[in-house]
Specification:
The chain has helices spanning about 15-20, 20-35, 50-65, 70, 115-120, 135-160, 250-255, 310-320; strands spanning about 10, 40-45, 85-90, 105, 180-185, 200-205, 210-215, 225, 230-235, 240-245, 265, 275-280, 285-290, 305-310. With about 350 residues, the protein is α+β, with helices and mostly antiparallel strands.
Length: about 350
């Protein structure tokens, strides 16, 4: 359960990269506290270069500027069947009936059809589909995806230390991770018109995997995180910093020690917003059972039955990620300057 936090902590990962045993433990403890109380934190000095981030944002803008019919040549299939890779147009995502005012291109770890896990039935794994845009794969996958995957595995090491485990605890469980990445475009949502749920970029939700690494446009505040008082806290972009948040798999794995926190995206900036979300999880057939340091049979017993990582994520795709669908009040909008009255007749 989250607390009544009013801001999202910023953690310097450079001291974990380059530090000694004591410094690593200190940073891991900071990360653990953030994961228990907020479920979100900023990560600075993470090692992904500004040049690579700039390049991937440039290619993203080029891709989303393509005609719709060109992008639709690589449209995703049936997401409930694990066909999650390719292009998603407006309101065609996990829950297409409401919200989803965004376009996205989804990709994952590149595995061939002959890979043993794919042949075994790992529905979320396999080869990617690539648009006919020069430099797209080289920048998006060979450059950014592989770099952010390496960072995610380092962050997993910090999580392990925060949970009183060996730093390499997650290594054999994440050598072929269910690690999907979404390159996302959110159009401007002007406040000149009433704002209702059908005009929200991403309605409130939690993420499915272990954790997410998010790169935001530097000039648009749109992501919000909900605290225990149900207040929406802005996750403003910080130049050079990634946003990290816990997902449902990790909350389950840690017996609710780490919290998967509700969040949403509302772009009312009159600017286009781009983001790169990297959803990291264990290998498809990893048995997600409570981590040994997160329970004891008498005072803190296991809350969840074991489940395969990939099957859990697949099940969440089938059943949709939205929660609290009866909410009627959109509430506070991103950015203090944007907190204007909302026409609540249009929020049902």
């Amino acid at each position: 359960m989250t607390t009544d936090f009013s801001e999202i902590p910023v953690i310097d990962f450079g001291r974990f990269h380059n530090g000694n045993k004591e410094e690593k433990a200190e940073i891991a403890n900071q990360i653990g506290e953030a994961c228990r109380k907020v479920g979100f934190f900023y990560l600075k000095n993470h090692g992904v270069t500004a040049k690579l981030t700039e390049d991937v944002m440039t290619v993203a803008k080029q891709y989303f500027a393509l005609p719709l019919d060109v992008k639709m040549r690589h449209a995703v299939g049936d997401m409930s069947k694990g066909q999650v890779r390719g292009f998603l147009t407006y309101r065609s995502g996990d829950c297409p009936d409401i919200g989803d005012q965004k376009e996205a291109f989804n990709l994952g770890l590149e595995l061939s059809e002959d890979d043993p896990e794919v042949k075994r039935g790992a529905t979320l794994q396999g080869p990617n589909t690539w648009p006919d845009l020069p430099g797209f794969r080289e920048t998006i996958y060979d450059g950014y995806y592989l770099a952010i995957k390496e960072l995610a595995q380092q962050v997993a090491g910090a999580f392990a230390l925060a949970l009183k485990l060996p730093e390499d605890y997650f290594v054999p469980l994440t050598d072929k991770p269910v690690a999907n990445m979404s390159v996302i475009y959110y159009p401007p949502q002007s406040l000149d018109k009433p704002l209702d749920k059908n005009r929200i970029g991403a309605l409130q939700h939690t993420d499915f995997g272990a954790f997410t690494l998010l790169q935001q446009s530097n000039d648009v505040t749109a992501l919000q995180v909900q605290n225990i008082k149900k207040e929406w806290i802005d996750a403003k972009p910080i130049e050079g910093a990634l946003v990290v948040n816990i997902g449902d798999t990790m909350q389950r794995w840690t017996n609710d020690q780490f919290v998967s926190t509700l969040h949403r995206v509302i772009n009312v900036s009159d600017k286009e917003r781009y983001s790169i979300a990297f959803f990291f999880g264990p290998n498809y057939f990893t048995n997600v059972d409570c981590i040994p340091t997160c329970y004891d049979d008498k005072e803190n017993p296991k809350k969840y039955k074991p489940i395969l990582s990939g099957e859990f994520v697949h099940h969440r795709l089938e059943t949709c990620h939205l929660t609290d669908n009866d909410e009627r009040d959109i509430g506070r909008l991103p950015g203090a300057e944007q907190n204007k009255p909302i026409d609540h007749e249009h929020t049902s």
